[in-house]
Amino acid sequence: MDRKRVGILIFPNVEVLDFCGPFEVFSVTRLNEEARREEPSPFEVLLVAESKDTVVATGGLKVIPDVTLETCPPLDILVVPGGWGTRTEINNQRLVKWIGERGRAVETLTSVCTGSMLLGQAGLLDGRRATTHWRALPWMRDSFPAVTVEEKLHVVEDGHVVTSAGISAGIDMALRIVIRYFRGRRTRHRAQHGVSVPRRQHPPSLSRPLTLPLSPSGGEGQDESLSPLGRG
After folding, report:
1. What is the distance between the alpha carbons of residues 58 and 68, in angstroms, rounded to a whole number?
2. Number of domains in the chain
3. I need a labelling partner for 30 at 20 to 30 A (CA). Which of 4, 123, 175, 195 fits?
4. DSSP letters along 171-215, please?
5. Where in the sequence numbering do the catalytic residues fall?
6. What is the mean pLDDT of residues 23-29?
7. 114: number of CA atoms within 13 Å, CB side?
8. Which domain holds residue 161?
9. More confident call, 225 vs 185
């Protein structure tokens, strides 16, 4: 199996669901559901941090990274999540430089929530369409005038760059990456919408199967719902 290597960046005060949502999608995807326990995911997922130290995410979750900026192997896909920590990391020249270098080298570059602000700071969004958490849209527009900021889209694909809105939108984004790489193959997860997805104004009804309404309790959560994600 030609596995695709996914690097998910983590940093202090990263929003938990911003990186855990895509991690879950990529790690549990299978091309052959009947052989789920015998075959690995077609994605190899690595958590990347600035150092080997434990990373404390929003809410106090402690995460041990797999690799550091220096030891990270070549990646096919880079995921840059958001969270309150982006307010600090946007001024972290070492990290932003790494994002810029890796972002130009990968096949697919993605962000969740205000992770797109780090992409913008690295010069990776100039001349492109992009989105971010709805509260950060003015921040993005003011900070990066060369970027066309999409206010009404949940997930925005512009070439090999895919940006998504807050929190649960990262799951939608990851599902679309699965489809990008394995379109036509039988996979465990299937996206439910098209390429550019409008922002949802209200959570769907509880009567819909496999749909969990999300009531954000902090961080940068949006009034959105989690996309269907069958686990079996």
Report:
1. 20
2. 1
3. 195
4. HHHHHHHHHHHHTTS--S----S-SSEEPPSSPPPTTSTT--B--
5. 113
6. 95
7. 26
8. 4-198
9. 185
> Does residue 161 lie in a domain region?
yes
Query: What is the Cα–Cα distance from 67 to 47, expressed in whole angstroms?
Result: 7
Residues 82 and 135 sit within 8 Å (Cβ to Cβ): no
What 8-state DSSP symbol labels residue 226? P
pLDDT at res. 217: 32
* Separation of alpha carbons 158 and 127, rounded Å: 10
Tell me, yes or no, whether 137 lies in a domain.
Answer: yes
Q: In this predicted structure, which of 89-98, 134-143, 184-193 has the lowest mean pLDDT? A: 184-193
211 falls within a domain: no
- Residue 47, φ and ψ in degrees, nearest 5: -95, 125
Does 146 map to a domain?
yes
Give me the chain's average pLDDT, please: 84
Angle at 17 between CA 184 and CA 205, to 5 degrees: 75
Q: Which residues pair with 158 in a beta bridge?
A: 161
Q: Exposed (0-12), middle (13-18) or buried (19+): which is 206, by Cβ within 10 Å?
A: exposed
pLDDT at 209: 32
In contact, 208 and 189? CB cutoff 8 Å: no
Q: Which residue has the higher pLDDT, 34 or 214?
A: 34
DSSP sequence for 148-183: EE-SSEEEEEETTEEEE-STTHHHHHHHHHHHHHHT
Q: Is 109 exposed, middle or buried (0-12, 13-18, 19+ CB in 10 A)?
A: buried
